[in-house]
């Protein structure tokens, strides 16, 4: 009963608690933009249309990333990761950022000001032990900004898995 109560309260607060504000926002948006023009986009594409695409500053991203689970800035897997990100085009980088953080928007203040739901929370890459798996994001709904990256044995495997995760999945291996 307690679990059901909590689930229903959360659902009510999310769905009904902001329903009036959401309806007003949508109504105002459709006054400016024709619904037929917007309906051709999925959520990710619409965010990119509205927010635009900015060039990601890779050195800022790298300098404001933390590592866990045995990874560090000079770990071979992390060096391969950044080499892969450098090879990505800007759209792929934005997709990677979106899947891990929940948004492809680049903050004006840069990656140092990346926030979680409750406090500043840097981009994080954590070692995850399943090398047969795709990289996965962990909890962007909780705004943890963490990528779980298996310790792949080669750059080519890391690059292939990362590209597959960015290009072919919408959940990035979320469990």
What are its keywords?
175 residues; four-stranded mixed β-sheet; 9% strand; globular; ubiquitin protein ligase activity
Can you characterise this structure?
By secondary structure, the protein is of the alpha/beta class. It is 49% helix and 9% strand. The chain contains 8 helices and 4 strands. The chain has a 4-stranded mixed beta sheet with strand order 1-2-4-3. A hairpin with a 7-residue loop joins strand 3 and strand 4 (146-149). The longest helix is centred in the first third of the chain and has 14 residues, at 2-15. The radius of gyration is 18 Å and the shape is globular. Pfam families: HECT. Its EC number is 2.3.2.26. GO terms for molecular function: ubiquitin protein ligase activity.
Summarize the entry for a quick read.
This protein is α/β, with parallel strands linked by helices and 175 residues long. The chain contains eight helices and four strands, in the order αααααβααβββα.
The helix fraction, in percent, is 40-55%
* Helix segment tally: 8
Derived from helix and strand composition plus strand pairing, the structural class reads alpha/beta
Mean pLDDT: 83
């Amino acid at each position: 009963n307690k679990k059901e109560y909590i689930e229903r309260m959360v659902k009510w607060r999310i769905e009904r608690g902001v329903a009036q504000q959401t309806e007003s926002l949508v109504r105002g948006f459709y006054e400016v933009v024709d619904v037929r023009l917007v309906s051709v986009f999925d959520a990710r594409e619409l965010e990119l249309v509205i927010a635009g695409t900015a060039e990601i500053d890779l050195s800022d991203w790298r300098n404001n990333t933390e590592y866990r689970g045995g990874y560090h800035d000079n770990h071979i897997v992390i060096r391969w990761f950044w080499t892969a990100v450098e090879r990505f085009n800007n759209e792929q980088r934005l997709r990677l950022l979106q899947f891990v953080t929940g948004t492809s928007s680049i903050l004006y203040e840069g990656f140092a000001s990346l926030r979680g739901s409750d406090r500043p929370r840097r981009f994080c890459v954590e070692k995850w032990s399943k090398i047969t798996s795709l990289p996965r994001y962990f909890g962007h709904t909780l705004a943890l900004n963490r990528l779980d990256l298996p310790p792949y044995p080669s750059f080519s495997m890391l690059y292939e898995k990362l590209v597959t995760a960015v290009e072919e999945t919408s959940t990035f291996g979320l469990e």
